[in-house]
Amino acid sequence: MAERFLQTLRRLATAYQAFAAYSAAHIRTLDLTPPQFDVLATLGDQAGMTCRELGERTLITKGTLTGVLDRLEVRGLLRREPMEHDRRSVFVALTPAGQELHARIFPEHVKHLRTCFAALDRQELRQLDDLLERLASGFASGATNDTDVAPSPKTRMIAAARRAH
Fold it and tell me: Which partner from 5, 30, 97, 128 sits 20 to 30 angstroms from 106, CA to CA?
């Protein structure tokens, strides 16, 4: 007999894949890749942050993040500076052109996504948010009935960040 959660898992994966495809198609019309948009969205309206913080907040792998930052820097949308107190750390911030692009495209993308979420009312959105948070916390804490695998440091950090918000 199949586990009940497997059907839910398939629906969750299908919903995420549909969301990612829908979102990415719009992002490409903005002349960006999804990871580039993720960086712009994360840095937008911020003074900046270290590469490490950016990697944690975007969940883009370190190797991918470097290339994304390189391409955004070449386009004049962000700048990188070594940190004075720790030259191994790099501070990343949007340039005025990057902030301007963020201010223009972020609301446009939110509007694009809003049409799909309009199928749910406020109560349903709150309920979905609560359920997804509980599910994410379960994954992040490594809480499963079938395995004793410890969560990775990044997974523990994500769980801690979610609990803090």
Answer: 128
Per-residue pLDDT reduced to its tens digit, 20-47: 999 999 999 999 999 999 999 999 989 9
Whole-structure pTM over 0.90, yes or no?
no
CA distances from 2 to 14, 80, 139 (A): 18, 51, 20
157 pLDDT exceeds 90? no
Instruction: Identify the residue whose tokens are 């803090």.
Output: 164
Write out 23-81 in H/E/C secondary structure: HHHHHHHCCCCHHHHHHHHHHCCCCCEEHHHHHHHHCCCHHHHHHHHHHHHHCCCEEEE
Give the span between the Cα atoms of 59 and 155, in whole angstroms: 10
Give all strands of the β-sheet with 90-94 in edge-to-edge order: 49-50, 90-94, 78-82
> Can you give the residue ranges of every domain in the chain?
4-119
Name the architecture of domain 4-119: Orthogonal Bundle (1.10)
Q: Quote the pLDDT of residue 151.
A: 52
Nearest-Å Rg of the Cα atoms of the chain is 18
Is residue 162 over pLDDT 70? Answer: no
